[in-house]
Amino acid sequence: EADIYQTPRYLVIGTGKKITLECSQTMGHDKMYWYQQDPGMELHLIHYSYGVNSTEKGDLSSESTVSRIRTEHFPLTLESARPSHTSQYLCASSERGYGYTFGSGTRLTVV
Amino acid sequence: GQQLNQSPQSMFIQEGEDVSMNCTSSSIFNTWLWYKQDPGEGPVLLIALYKAGELTSNGRLTAQFGITRKDSFLNISASIPSDVGIYFCAGQLVDFNKFYFGSGTKLNVKP
């Protein structure tokens, strides 16, 4: 049973549109993460948060932005989508010292 | 970021065979995790290791935390078709908030 939810699962959108990918978790975890992953490839950390009002950029540069106004919610926004943003975006959360719980991901296609 | 070297990159095996894969790093890790990812889904945690030398099993899966704390191994015994997927290792440094992921091992099992 998933305790971390991502919506939408699939999104096809035109170039230049603004989009927000949603991520919510019900476990009360302080730490949340966004990873970008091309199909069958490795995961790249693009954003993370250690708690409310805390956000940091990850190891892979990304044009997306994130916010953390509530513990359970960590949305990712692209102000102007481009074909190069086509990828799978995975959200995860964790407690200190324990492994990540991942959502099912959002498969984004920008046409 | 930290580099985890995961091998092999891919494997093609016959159903019933045993499988081994490993991750190595030049850094010392406090925690090692092993995940499995099915196509179009988020990674799911298989095994977590917290102590050097620890050997932990989960059904047909066995993983070990290397004594040097720089490596970890995952073995799958008597493989079955549903073992197909991508297996990722992840290591955590003294900073308890972030994990670093290997590049994945793609496992294919022929019935």
Sum this structure up briefly.
Chain A is an all-beta fold. Chain A has no helices and eleven strands. In chain A, strands 2, 4, 5, 6, 9, 10 and 11 form a seven-stranded mixed β-sheet that branches.
How does this structure look, described?
The complex is a heterodimer of chains A (111) and B (111). With 111 residues, chain A is mainly beta. Chain A contains no helices and eleven strands. In chain A, strands 2, 4, 5, 6, 9, 10 and 11 form a seven-stranded mixed sheet that branches. A four-stranded antiparallel sheet of chain A has the order 1-3-8-7, with no helix packed on it. In chain A, a hairpin with a 6-residue loop joins strand 9 and strand 10. Chain A is globular, with a radius of gyration of 13 Å. The mean pLDDT of chain A is 93. By secondary structure, chain B is mainly β. In chain B, strands 2, 4, 5, 9, 10 and 11 form a six-stranded mixed sheet that branches. The radius of gyration of chain B is 13 Å and the shape is globular. Classes of the chains: A mainly beta (111), B mainly beta (111). The A-B interface holds A 6, 31, 33, 39-43, 45, 48, 50, 59, 90, 92, 94, 96-105, 107 and B 1, 31, 33, 35, 39-45, 48, 50, 86, 88, 90, 96-99, 101-104, 106.
Approximate shape of chain A: globular
Q: How would you spell out the order of helices and strands of chain A?
A: EEEEEEEEEEE
What is the distance, rounded to the nearest whole angstrom, between the alpha carbons of the first and last residues of chain B?
39 Å
Backbone shape of chain B: globular
Structural class of chain A: mainly beta
